[in-house]
Amino acid sequence: MQSLSRDMNMGILDPQEKMSPGSQGDLFQDTSNASEVKRIGGFVASREAALRGLESFLSGAADDYRKKRNVDFGSNKHAFVSQLSPYISSGLISEKEIIIQVLERHSLDKAYKFIQEVFWRSYWKGWLEHRPNLWQCYWELLTSSFDSVMANPVAEPIYLKACEGQTDIAVFNSWIKELKETGYLHNHARMWFASIWIFTFKLPWELGADLFYRYLLDGDPATNTLSWRWVAGLHTRGKIYLATKQNIAKFAKGRLLDMGVGDRGLENLSQGALTIQENLPSSAFKLAAVQEKRANYQCEPDERRGFLFTEGGLSTIPPDFITNAAGLRLEGRSPIESSSDLVNSFLRQAIRSTLSRIATEDKRLLVEDRRLLSIREVVEWAKKHQLNSVLVAYAPQGPCHEALKVLKGELGFHDIELKEVGSAYDQSIWRHSRRGFFHLNNKIPEILQSLDLVRP
Questions:
Q1: CB of 231 within 8 A of CB of 409?
Q2: What global pTM score does this model have?
Q3: Architecture of the CATH domain 305-422
């Protein structure tokens, strides 16, 4: 299964056509220099850094990845996985770009395991697109679950110790430390972590998913939330992921040695899986047809159009008819607590480095790159520049999707249309993502051929 926290090819905005090499309070006072791109955790939030990361991984995307992808060698020792997920989730680079580059170096057969894992990301998003009520139901569940745990004299201290890395399981504490210090965890570690949280600590899966989403630089609403449900046995009923002492000792040997305390506490892992009861209402799973979004728009001669950059669509390039560009200020990831400073800083820097790059590459564009805009400020920006419409990359289910629904209404009140631009890559996968992953898995070669990403 792909990362517990798992593109944006927009037709006329396809990046392949034009390849270019804090705190919550800080978001309201966004006056930092857009040209200052610094390392956050282990990552630099720029497209250039994403492309360098992809280039350095390509040689190992086949045999090395297949053989060693499950091994957690320790904190900051993740050379055998791509570590591209923060760049994908923020939109600095797309899954399509990655697949193109990998298949230029390796055959589909040799790189299939990696390609399959990339498809997991789009599968999770597509599965959630078919169930548009689920995210809001999950969001509402978080508050009640948190209140319930904090009012429980047994569960509260377990929850607080797990969040702070003060448990009796040393390797779990090591993972929470790396998560908070770097904003990243190896995928296998995420699965072990989730399993221990759910089956050993007996804590609600949704609060673990919320913790990850607030701290992971690559936090993705669909991938993160649904992967936690997969571990709990809720995505595929009856199929759970149970962390064992033997499995951790085998695949996290390097981390255990680095820690100096070995496998302390692993003897306390649950030996059997609880049956986790579904706590989302049946309405959360009501199926809906996925509405395909246009990938191309035409512009009337006297029409003024702007482009709004948001988390998830940063590898795109505005088409020639765009006159103005701006970035949407980050929204909260949780109703419980603020996202970490690392997450806020990374996403803010990712959007602002994109605006700076676009301003440099296209001098005719009027780019608002001094600061990111709130929803109200986007409306004022559009009115100020007399825009007839604003284009934005379609945001899948999650906080950004909800923010754009609000923005669409606010702009519409002033007769300014918000036009969401779709991704041919995403939509080709989402139409096969209504059921289980292995239905999609059987379609991977066919989908790649239909997108001209692999030879027949």
A1: no
A2: 0.90
A3: 3-Layer(aba) Sandwich (3.40)
